[in-house]
């Protein structure tokens, strides 16, 4: 069974800290990895897409990496801000679907 | 560019009623999807479509039906609503995920069955 796991399930950090969110997947058939942000009661906002031929992607304070051989992806957030507080979801792209992890709930304390 | 539009945003149904959740995209995306999100769980795929006239079941299709008569629209039909269908429903689209195009999601429909 294809699975995507996110650790930790919840994380609380003080403002200004750098942090790493982890995502692991069990199926080598996952050919790309997409990170999303979800605010309470809202939809999913795409943050970064790492294609199968790439090792990492960067957007502003966000950097995502992908290591298909070990089945791992990380999302690095630099200089965290209270506005970064949200649930972060990783999803592996497989044939005809995205396989989602259960998310990491991030709280950045002012 | 509106992206993926879902209607309604909220709905309360009584057990046994039926309804259609609407999804439309204006990006000329071939692939469209319906997911449901339950508290503490990841998103689960209900149905998907790889183009107009083509639909297929995902992981949790029971109790739902879909159609794809146009590229733009992908409605999800609930027949005989049950409390187990209380969830948040998300529609998504992609140009071609196998070519490493990402997914765009709508803002969701929050459905309660009482």
Task: Explain what this protein looks like in three dimensions.
The complex is a heterodimer of chains A (110) and B (114). Chain A has strands at residues 4-7, 10-14, 19-25, 32-38, 44-50, 56-59, 62-67, 72-77, 86-94, 97-100, 104-109. Chain A is mainly beta and 110 residues long. In chain A, the strands form 2 sheets. In chain A, strands 2, 4, 5, 9, 10 and 11 form a 6-stranded mixed beta sheet that branches. A 5-stranded antiparallel beta sheet of chain A has the order 1-3-8-7-6, with no helix packed on it. Chain A is globular. The N and C termini of chain A lie far apart (41 Å). With 114 residues, chain B is mainly beta. Helix content of chain B is 0%, strand content 49%. The chains are: A mainly beta (110), B mainly beta (114). Chains A and B meet through β4, β5, β9 and β10 of A and β4, β5 and β10 of B.
Number of strands of chain B: 11
Q: Average pLDDT of chain B, to the nearest integer? A: 94
Unreliable residue stretches of chain B: none
What value does the Rg of chain A take, in angstroms? Answer: 13 Å
| Protein structure class of chain A | mainly beta
Looking at how many chains there are and whether they match, the oligomeric state comes to heterodimer
Largest sheet of chain A: 6 strands, mixed
Low-pLDDT parts of chain A are none
Strand content of chain A: over 45%
- Tell me the fraction of residues in β-strands of chain B, as a range: over 45%
Give the CA-based shape of chain B.
globular
Write down the Rg of chain B: 13 Å
Q: Please tally the helical runs of chain A, counting DSSP H or I stretches of 4 or more residues.
A: 0
Shape of chain A: globular
Count of helical stretches of chain B = 0
Helix content of chain A: under 10%
Structural class given helices, strands, pairing of chain B? mainly beta
What's the story with the biggest beta sheet of chain B?
7 strands, mixed
* Mean pLDDT rating of chain A: 92
> Strand tally of chain A, please?
11
Cα-to-Cα separation, first versus last residue of chain B: 36 Å
């Amino acid at each position: 069974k294809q699975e995507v796991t996110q650790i930790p399930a919840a994380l609380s950090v003080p403002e200004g800290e750098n942090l790493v969110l982890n995502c692991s997947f069990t199926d080598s058939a996952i050919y790309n990895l997409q990170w999303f942000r979800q605010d309470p009661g809202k939809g999913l906002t795409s943050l970064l897409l790492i294609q199968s031929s790439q090792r990492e992607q960067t957007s502003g304070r966000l950097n995502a990496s992908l290591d298909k051989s070990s089945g791992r992806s990380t999302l690095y957030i630099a200089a965290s801000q209270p506005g970064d507080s949200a649930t972060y979801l990783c999803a592996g792209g497989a044939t005809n679907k995205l396989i989602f992890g259960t998310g990491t709930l991030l709280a950045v304390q002012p | 560019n509106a992206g993926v539009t879902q209607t309604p945003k909220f709905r309360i149904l009584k057990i046994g009623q039926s309804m259609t959740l609407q999804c439309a995209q204006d990006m000329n995306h071939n692939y469209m999807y319906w997911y449901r999100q339950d508290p503490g769980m990841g998103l689960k795929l209900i149905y998907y479509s790889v183009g107009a006239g083509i639909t297929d079941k995902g992981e949790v299709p029971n109790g739902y039906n879909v159609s794809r008569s146009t590229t733009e629209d992908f409605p999800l039909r609930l027949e005989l609503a049950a409390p187990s269908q209380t969830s948040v429903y998300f529609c998504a689209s992609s140009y071609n995920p196998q070519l490493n195009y990402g997914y765009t999601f709508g803002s969701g429909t929050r459905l309660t069955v009482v």
